[in-house]
Every structure is written in structure tokens, then in C-alpha cells.
Task: structure prediction
Amino acid sequence: MSNFRIEHDFLGEKEIPNEAYYGIQTLRALENFNITCIPISKEPLLIQAFGYVKKAAALTNQECGVLKPEKADAICKACDELIAGKYVDQFVTDMIQGGAGTSVNMNVNEVIANIGLEMLGYAKGDYDHLHPNNHVNFSQSTNDAYPTAFRLALYIKIGHFIEALSKLEKAFDAKSEEFKTVLKMGRTQLQDAVPMTLGAEFHGFSTTIKEDIQRLEEARLLICEINMGATAIGTSINAPEGYPQIVTKYLKDLTGIPVVLAEDLIEATCDTGAYVQLSGILKRTAVKVSKICNDLRLLSSGPRAGINEINLPRMQPGSSIMPGKVNPVIPEVVNQTAYYVIGADVTITMAAEAGQLQLNVMEPVIAFSLFSSLSYMTNACHTLTDKCVVGITANEEICKNMVMNSIGIVTSLNPILGYEAVSSIAKEALNTGKSVHQITVLERGLISQEKWDEIFSIENLLHPKFISN
Result:
């Protein structure tokens, strides 16, 4: 018995391994596109999403009276297998390919057809009984099925990223409470500024992440607009009357995702604005998280020749030559992840711009870039939370001593002594190394010790109030 079956398309015939559930068009894609070496099987959410799309299409076609119940039932049962996470290894096409996703769509159509054929008691490849194009792809085009599945998967992935960000935000918020009485020096342009608390600094980290969670929730709603029923370019050619509305309702019911049908299917088929906006928010979030990681690295620098206000968890030896050195490897890896996302945003921007006329043929690289960016940042945020933020400790005495030895505290004397006099104190302190207290109270007698104690009490430094003569 042969280990292969013969399948044909309008370009000719090819041998397909008998054990394979994909068919000839998938094999052609496998031969043509060896780009990332990352098959779509590495994005199981996309496969699951396609299962929902094809099932909704089959149910709609049956309801519209254009697909026989036994064929619709076989397609739906095959789709249920994909939704359950089975047959993932049969999705072999590269994440980046030419053809606007046609290879992915046909990979799905062929696998569903062959699973359905076996359920009906026929051999794989016996497409007279259940055909990838005529039945599984009925009333569809790659140009509506692919972006719809893409958006369903994106919706879930954005949700996972929001969960990771929420976890990180809560970790920073918990640290802000833990450090709320730790006095430290605030800095601007890497120079001493005015006192603050370490808790307030960490609360700022929490707030900036919370803002981006809100932006992601907004972008997630944009992803819910789909173009199912648009078929090739938005004219709904080859789709029965009412199909777009019915298939959208089935998708909403099957997935629980609040999908809505685009008002203008021609515009929706060629527009990729929602992806650009989502990518921009991902870049914004990556930049902000990376900035926080830079701050964590600075605040933990040293330990003896740096700022050393906080301690990061010691994760691994930091050098092959310097004994005892420990590096901030977790913030570093998050920085690098952010740089990837920033670069992916440029790719998405250029790919969206390149969508000429009625279709954006570059959507596969948009999908690859958004999927990878969301996955990598989700992993990075979990790593930052679990392996860094929850284990951060404060060096409280070092923080306090930096405040009291800083020239920056002279700013609190402005309301009493005026800017010129305070500038003179700062200049002398800088030139001589004397403390602000020594110059102001002990040598110049500009204010009393009692007034100094009032201004520079821990309570007033933590919660400043206006103090004058």
C-alpha cells in the first residue's frame, strides 16, 4: 500500500503523505515559504479561532439553505476538534507568507475537510464528498476568514497581556505601600532634586501601567469589528442573502467575544487601522515598562559605588571573571523585549501602509508581529513581576542619608530665605563639601535649629507643607 495519496489543483498533481490531514495547497505553501521556520501551529489560538470561523460559516450556510446538513455537521464536528486543541501539528505553513494568508486559510480548509471525511467514513483526499473549497470555504474568502480569525485570536491574546500587566501593576502597588515611609531623594536629569518617598516612586510605576491597561481595553474593542461575509473584496460575492449578519451572530454566540459586523465591508477588507493603533499602544506600553526597568537598574546600581537605594532579587552570578558580581538580568531582559516590540511596530506600520487598493496583502507579517509582540511582552511582564518586583527590598538608611547629605534639600528653604540666599548656600555646600545644615544653621545663623527641625522633619519631608518665617 502506498504511503502517499495523489491530490491535484489547477497547477497539477502532488503526492501527499497519507497520514497528513493537510492537502496540496498546504504542501505548496510548505515548499514555497521557508521564512521564519515558525509554523502557524505555534499560534494555537489562531487555529482555534479558525475553528470558530469555519463552524460559524457552516452553520450559517446550512441556515441559508446552501449547504446540506450532513456536510455542515461534519464540518462543525471537525471544527470542534480544532477548537479543542487537536490536530495542531497539521498546521505547517510559515507564519510569514505571500498570498495575504491564502495558504493559512487553505491549510485550515484542507485539515477540516479531511477530518470531516474520516468522520463520514471516507478516505482523506476523497473531496467529492467534502471539499476544502466547495464546502469548508463556502461563502468565504481568505480575505474575510483570515482577518476574522486573526482578530478573534488577538482579542484573547490582548486579554492575556492585560492579565500580565494587571499582575505587574498590583505588585508595584503593593511595594508602594511597603515603602510608603521610606524617605529618599528624588532626581531630575540624574541630579538631586527634592525629597520624596520610595513608596511614591513605586506608586508612579503602578499608575503608569494602569493607564496602559485602559488603553489596551479600548484597542481591544476596535479588534471586535469583523468583515465576515465580505468575501473577496467586500461586495459579498458568492455569499447568500443575509449571510454576513447571520455568521457574525453565530461567531458572537460561539466565542463569547462581542464581535460586530463592519458597516462598510469594502473599507473593512482593506483597512488595517485597528492593527496600527493596537501596535502603537503595545509600543507605548513597552516603552513605559522599559523606562521602569531602567529606573530599577539605576536605583539598584552599585551596590557600593552606585545609588543602592533598592535591592533586586539576586538571580544568577553576573560575571565569568568578576567573583561576587550580580547583574540586574530581569530588567535587562525586559528592556530587550521592549526593543523588539518597538521594532515590530515599524514593521506593522510599513505593512499597513503597503495595502494597495481593496486588500492588504501584507497581513501575515502584521499577524506575526502582533502575535509575537503580545506573547513576548506577556512573558516579560510575568517574568518582571515574579522574578524581580515582588522580591525588591529597600535600603532605608542609605535612602535617608542621601536625603540629609544632599544639596537638593535647600529648595525647602526658598519660602523663608529667598532664591538668592538659598543659591549661595547651595554654592558653598557644593564647593566645600559642607552640609546645608552646617552652613545655614551653625555658621550663618539664618534660621534656628527649631525651624530647621520643623522644615526637615520626616513628616514634612514625606508630606511637604508650606512653611515660612
Notes: The beta strands are 4-9, 12-17, 183-188, 191-197, 225-226, 260-261, 310-311, 393-394.
